[in-house]
């Protein structure tokens, strides 16, 4: 049988042991959501940055997130990132995708406000084309509280200078940016694009991190090297950008402050979990920056520190939601299941005592 035996922990909760390729995974069989094992600091951070739901705000003040991604071959990734942002608590979701991807994204959900900003067959890479393409996004920059660049974007070399322009405009507007997947690839092609960037979060997995490290440091990383030291040195080289190095545990640093997220998660690695993390991170860092902007004495370094803690909070939320998803769905767990649990975990956090 898949479920080998039932046990109870000190609180009387039923616990299962499930076979997994790397040993035994322990999870709860009942579908009732429980977050008592979520680290208290993650709950405190979320409650400190989440905007109050007090009937005093207007539409969009709880978070306006932009997603730049989606291409002919990939439409699921930007959808997952966008819906994750909304289920975390963002209120408006803008999406900029290729002309080929936009029709599919428009029918995935009416929540997504999709704008095609380039056509693959029309990419020229000229300065005029780059400026015109970037302006479709940057002209709306004042609407956004955070931007995610990369999910499903594809590795189109002509988009690299477009991303550079968007990052620089976001820095001028003091809008945090999350670079995920193909956004990380773009930085590998042009690491100097972060020299004038502002509050940036990169979310590389193990392979992406190795490539990013080699591209930026101009030397291959030693496989047995000190991960903490290597992440911190890479952050400093990238203008103290925040890096979430995803793995068995998530390591988060800006080169000055370093945290590790050790929530269990689950042994199954379905495609799309990283896109969900990008969306949740965007909402959390948007809230952190919105709160920071209310304090006139808060400087850039303080804002960066808040971004690190917000990123750690996002990692904790996604890992806990995926753990609960796997406990309920087992080997058949998919990212749509994760999105359903994500909203429930957020609601449980809000109801929890600090």
Summarize the structure.
The chain is of the alpha/beta class and 354 residues long. The chain has helices spanning 40-49, 76-88, 102-108, 127-138, 160-172, 182-189, 206-217, 227-237, 273-293, 300-329, 335-351; strands at 3-8, 14-20, 23-27, 64-68, 92-98, 112-118, 146-149, 177-179, 200-202, 242-245, 250-253, 258-261. The strands form 2 sheets. A 9-stranded mixed sheet has the order 6-5-4-7-8-9-10-11-12, with helices on both faces. A 3-stranded antiparallel sheet has the order 1-2-3, with helices on one face.
Give your account of this protein's structure.
With 354 residues, the chain is α/β, with parallel strands linked by helices. Helices cover 44% and strands 17% of the residues. The protein is built from eleven helices and twelve strands. The protein has helices at 40-49, 76-88, 102-108, 127-138, 160-172, 182-189, 206-217, 227-237, 273-293, 300-329, 335-351; strands at residues 3-8, 14-20, 23-27, 64-68, 92-98, 112-118, 146-149, 177-179, 200-202, 242-245, 250-253, 258-261. It has a nine-stranded mixed β-sheet with strand order 6-5-4-7-8-9-10-11-12, with helices on both faces. It starts with a strand and ends with a helix.
């Amino acid at each position: 049988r898949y479920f080998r035996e039932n046990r109870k922990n000190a609180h009387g909760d039923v616990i299962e042991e499930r076979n997994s390729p790397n040993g035994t995974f322990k999870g709860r069989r009942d579908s009732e959501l429980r977050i008592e094992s979520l680290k208290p600091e993650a709950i405190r951070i979320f409650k400190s940055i989440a905007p109050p739901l007090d009937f005093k705000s207007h539409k969009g003040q709880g978070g306006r997130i932009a997603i730049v991604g989606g291409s002919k071959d990939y439409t699921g990734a930007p959808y997952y990132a966008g819906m994750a942002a909304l289920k975390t608590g963002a209120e408006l979701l803008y999406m900029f995708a290729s002309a080929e991807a936009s029709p599919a994204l428009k029918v995935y959900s009416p929540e997504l406000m999709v704008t095609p900003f380039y056509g693959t067959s029309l990419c020229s890479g000229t300065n005029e084309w780059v400026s015109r393409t970037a302006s479709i996004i940057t002209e709306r920059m004042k609407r956004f509280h955070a931007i995610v660049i990369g999910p499903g974007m594809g590795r189109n070399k002509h988009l690299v200078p477009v991303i550079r322009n968007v990052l620089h405009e976001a820095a001028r507007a003091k809008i945090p940016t999350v670079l995920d997947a193909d956004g990380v690839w773009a930085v590998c092609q042009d690491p100097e694009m972060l020299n004038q960037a502002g509050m940036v979060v990169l979310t590389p997995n193990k392979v992406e991190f190795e490539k990013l490290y080699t591209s930026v440091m101009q030397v291959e990383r030693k496989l047995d090297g000190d991960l903490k030291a290597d992440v911190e040195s890479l952050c400093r080289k990238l203008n103290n950008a925040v890096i979430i190095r995803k793995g068995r545990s998530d390591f988060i640093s800006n080169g000055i402050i370093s945290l590790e997220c050790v929530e269990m998660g689950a042994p199954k690695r379905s495609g799309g979990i990283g896109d969900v993390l990008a969306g949740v991170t965007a909402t959390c860092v948007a809230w952190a920056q919105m709160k920071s902007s209310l304090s006139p004495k808060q400087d850039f370094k303080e804002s960066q520190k808040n971004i690190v803690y917000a990123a750690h909070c996002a990692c904790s939320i996604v890992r806990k939601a995926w753990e609960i998803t796997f406990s309920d769905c087992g080997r058949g767990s998919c990212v749509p299941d994760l999105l359903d649990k994500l909203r429930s975990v957020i609601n449980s956090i809000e109801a929890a005592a600090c």
